[in-house]
Amino acid sequence: MVAVGVVLGAAAAGRWVKLTRATSILPAGVLLGLLVPWVGWAPSVAVALPLLLVVGAMGGALVVPMNALLQHRGHQLLTAGRSIAVQNFNENASVLVMLGVYAALLHAQVTIAGVLTLFGLAVAGVMLLLIWRERRRRLVLQSGSQGRAGSAGIGVTDA
């Protein structure tokens, strides 16, 4: 069901989320993080299946605009091929780190529901930080366009 949700979410994002508004989809990441723990605590398959569909849809809706934004901004700094290589390296490194965290949690005998809860809350927290950072970046860009000096050291190009 997650895969079906990913396809639906990715198709919707590809159709309705433009590159210039890619960061507007970040709240879907918060929702994704908040829904993941519910899957682990679902009392039955009948409850878990729709949750898995929605989790997949939020993930699909998030990944398409974020990948487009990463590649666009990466292309501004590097060549397209190097940008994708850096992105792939970071994704694979993240998978290895999370695999290590997962193994440590299992070694500590944390239940699967507990792992999903910790993971979901971590995702929601990181997404909230990204939303805060994006709002801060936009405020700096707006103040810069009004003639104020300084960039607060953010250093992200406008997409």
How many helices? Answer: 5
**Principal-axes shape call:** globular
Low-confidence stretches: 148-159
- Helical content stands at over 70%
Structure commentary:
This protein has 159 residues and is mainly alpha-helical. The chain has one domain (2-145). Helices cover 79% and strands 0% of the residues. It is built from five helices and no strands. The chain is globular, with a radius of gyration of 18 Å. The model is unreliable at 148-159 (pLDDT under 50).
Element layout with pairings:
Blueprint: H1 2-16, H2 26-40, H3 45-77, H4 80-107, H5 112-145
Helix pairs in contact: 1-3, 2-3, 2-5, 3-4
What distinguishing features does this structure have?
5 helices; 159 residues; single chain; disordered C terminus; mainly alpha
Brief summary of the model shown:
The chain is an all-alpha fold. The chain is 79% helix and 0% strand.
